[in-house]
Amino acid sequence: MSVFAYMASHADQLIEATLEHLALLGATMGISCVFAAFVTLACLRRERLANAVVELLGAVYSIPSIALFALLIPLTGLGSTSAVLVMVVYNQFMLVRNALEGLRGVDADLIEAARGMGFSERQVLLDVRLPLALPAIIAGVRLASISTVGIATIAATINAGGLGAILLSGLRSMNMDKILAATLCSAAIALACDALCRALEGRVRTRMPR
Question: Tens digit of pLDDT for each residue in 147-160?
Answer without folding.
Answer: 999 999 999 999 99
